[in-house]
Design brief:
mainly alpha
Length: 222
Amino acid sequence: MDQFTQFLNPEFLIKSFGLLGIFFIVFAESGLFFGFFFPGDSLLLTAGLFASRGDLNLILLIALSTIAAITGDTTGYWIGRKMGEKLFAKEESRFFKKSHLLKAQDFYNKHGGKTIVLARFMPFVRTFAPMVAGAAKMNYTAFLTYNVVGGLLWGAGLPFVGYGIGTYLRDRFTPEQVDKYFLLLVIAVIGLSVAPTAVHILKDKDSRKKLIHALSSFFSHR
């Protein structure tokens, strides 16, 4: 597993960097344009699983992830507010995907302020939605309201779901049995969390072409 791939592995991230690492990743994915590739959903769900067996403190996990989500979106809003048109004129690169920014803009134009809540559960869009809101000069009080609601639902909700899954299994199986299959459980949770992204890629024609091209390039160099 190469170094970049490791940083997309929630279990590796949690074991290596703990709660502070979770805070930074959630913050970056919520509002810094280079954070779009971080595995926010699977990270928070997996962190909840770890908390269910006592490896992380659930209350502290929920508090830090919620604060990171809200402050991250706030940072993204002010980036969009200050950069405005320059953000949309920026060339696409490995650490900035203009295509995701434009999709977030389309989503914002369709759903308005509710985008800030809905985008929390949409990979890529959640990173750029607060920037679009800032560039559109959305009223900050309204933005902050949606931001807090979305931050609580996502930042607290996903770890709690992961914790609930782990606790449910521990109530029905011995700790040894759960520990034995814990890796499979983590893989299943990660698969569940990335399913919406996979469906989006397969439904979107441009994304589907990029995926096919990437797979072709990968196997041609094997």
